[in-house]
Amino acid sequence: MPPDLIDALEVRLQRRVSGALPGEHRSPGVGAGVELSQLRAYQPGDDVRQLDPAAFARTRIPHVRVQVPERALTTWIVLDVSPSMAFGTADRLKSDVAEGVATVVGRLATRRSNRVGVLTTGSAREHVLAPHGGRGALLSLRRLLAEGVAPDGRPGPGLKLAFARLGRLSRGSGLIVIVSDFHGPPDWGKDLRALAHRHDILACEIRDPREDALPDVGHLWLVDPETGAERHVDTARSRVREAYAAAAAEGRAAVAAELRHARAQHVVVSTQGDWLRRFGEALR
Fold first, then answer.
1. What is the pLDDT of residues 165-194, one digit of tens each?
2. Measured between alpha carbons, how far is residue 281 from residues 90, 111, 215 in Å?
3. Do residue 138 and residue 51 come from a single domain?
4. Are residues 101 and 179 in the same domain?
5. By the 8 A CB rule, do 150 and 123 touch?
């Protein structure tokens, strides 16, 4: 991964999705910080260290300084580790691209004293890494990525339950990056829209060329990695290839519509070609 490109992505990712880098935007609430929110009259119980001598000199009434707190940006990565992510017919597997995206986002999200958390979905064993920063966060992320994806025919809970759980885990506002192939019916739209009320959403959809169109290579046995179901297909028949392409396009359109309805930033990357450059270009 070219370091210069990753450095450029840091600014693009945070400005495009979050609107500003930490320290350049106003945090919700009040608390300890360096930016003044307001001056108000002193009330019993206020911290006397926050008394403003200049305001008292002007008004002869004790005033305290109420400040905007310094808060770091918290990023959550929702990582799909379902069996379908182990598919790939081009330069790499979908899980390889997902690992790369998660690694880049993790590196960017832990800079400037920010924090990153991870929630996996699609496996019988769900993993949750609480948000934290520094090298420890990156090491935990690498160990989690090294576990790979779920075995074929043994999928776990999908995105719908992951989004619902993340709504309970995440506090305040932040950034959520979804890394998935969005395989299956988009029954998660309502839960994603609920998250979008408090968070910025970046959805990274990973595709393989053979998921969009079948080649004319004669007879094939196809296996659904999620269910283990098998089907014999004669790819020499143009009607079969056309029906397959139409069904694939309909499924992708449904996913794009749900993401658009949730006002999520939608990035599509492929197992073919330079996925990192495509990821960066989509954030312009």
1. 999 998 778 899 999 999 988 999 999 999
2. 21, 21, 29
3. no
4. yes
5. yes
